[in-house]
Design goal:
Growth Hormone, Chain: A, 14 helices, single chain, mainly alpha
Length: 395
């Protein structure tokens, strides 16, 4: 337990946010396939959810950093995301669903980076304890992905949107249990986007993150369909997803210990290299239950360690008034652009080249991220104080 911060309130939001993710992302492909959409269309719709992360987080981050009412923006975004998602019950066409997912994800994807910044504000000098708060998001994901998998064995897939909407409403309620951070006022100037783009270490980090999330695209979009086509039942598929995220929880729990003993650079390199191995195991050994489970355990490093390290880099590069902008930029480039590209190439390759080739491409992308980080990642990054002097951010 971390003293002097609203630990359980912060954790509850993460729990509901990622529980909604656990109900939506692993099973949306099945839902769309059951609704007669093909692989290309599924890839396009999933890319819509990822694609809004390119613009929405940075736009809302700019607003939050300048207006200073970060919690209000989080609450507003949570409410509007649930409201927009409810439109899924009244649309039937591809373009109708496209617009619903576009509007929903525009708000849903915008709030997490701002909540990350709010969490770090509450943590203040205990930033290494971030993973202990964030792991409740992973626990929420585990409970959701297993529970939904079991439920979908007994009810029709058409009921999935009801489950997702209930979790989104829980997320909205959780935002009203959190208080705004009332710490010191930051007087530092806002960081220019042009200055950001001149720092090779930041560019290398963001580029590596883009390739990492692009490599995850086929996994998030087609893993459930892939496992089902090889004879796995929905409940067992939910367990496979849960194994991955449980491993992620363990990684988050161990991060305070890991970062004290190993450099951020080493942890990042290990996570990226393991990504290549994981995608190759999934590509060629999906029928082997033991190797499939082993591949899921790698989620501890390919997401758990990777994300905690990336967040630490971003927090140290972007200080004070630039925190929301930094978190949003990380989300936009990696989960947004990288995730969208991953879903798109996954959809086209899945239909034309097959699953093994698609996951092999994912392995190659993870290795590219490893090569970039090997060359440019700093062991112990400090904040870019030299970039913060005398600058005002201009949109």
């Amino acid at each position: 337990m971390i003293k002097n911060i609203p630990y359980w309130q912060l954790s509850l939001f993460y729990c509901f946010y990622f529980a909604s993710l656990g109900a939506l992302i692993p099973y949306l492909g099945l839902y769309l396939s059951d609704s007669s959409y093909n692989a290309v269309e599924i890839g396009q719709l999933m890319a819509t959810i990822m694609g809004t992360k390119i613009i929405a987080p940075y736009l809302w981050g700019w607003i939050a950093d300048h207006r200073g009412n970060r919690l209000f923006i989080i609450r507003l975004g949570a409410f509007l995301s649930a409201l927009a998602y409810s439109g899924i019950f009244i649309v039937e066409s591809f373009w109708g669903l496209f617009l619903i997912l576009l509007t929903f994800s525009f708000f849903w994807n915008a709030i997490l980076p701002q909540f990350e910044a709010l969490t770090f504000n509450h943590l203040e000098h205990n930033e290494h304890q971030y993973s202990w708060v964030r792991m409740w998001g992973s626990i929420g994901f585990i409970c959701s992905v297993i529970g939904v998998g079991v439920i979908l064995n007994t009810i029709e897939l058409s009921r999935l949107p009801i489950i997702v909407l209930c979790l989104l409403i829980g997320m909205v309620c959780a935002t009203f249990l959190i208080c705004e951070h009332s710490g010191r006022v930051h007087n530092e100037s806002h960081l220019s986007l042009l200055k950001i783009l001149k720092n090779k270490h930041i560019i290398a980090l963001l580029l590596a993150c883009l390739f990492v999330q692009a490599s995850h695209g086929p996994y998030y979009t087609f893993y459930t369909l892939y496992a089902e086509s090889h004879g796995y039942e929905k409940s067992w598929i939910g367990i496979l997803w849960a194994i991955g995220v449980f491993s992620e929880v363990l990684a988050f729990a161990l991060m305070p210990w890991l970062v004290k003993r190993f450099s951020l650079r080493l942890l990042l390199l290990v996570s990226l290299f393991s990504g290549s191995l994981r995608w190759l195991l999934i590509a060629f050994f999906i029928d082997n239950v033991y190797l499939t489970v082993f591949a899921q355990i790698f989620h501890a490093s390919t997401f758990g360690i990777y994300h905690a390290v990336a967040i630490a880099y971003i927090h140290r590069y972007f200080k004070d008034n630039n925190q929301g902008k930094g978190q949003a930029l990380y989300s936009s480039v990696s989960f947004g652009l990288g995730g969208a590209l991953g879903s798109l190439y996954g959809g086209y390759l899945w239909q034309s080249a097959g699953s093994s080739i698609t996951f092999s491409i994912a392995a190659a992308l993870s290795f590219i991220a490893f090569a970039i980080s090997w060359q440019f990642a700093q062991p112990h990054p400090s904040c870019c104080s030299s970039l913060n002097k005398g600058l005002r951010y201009k949109i």
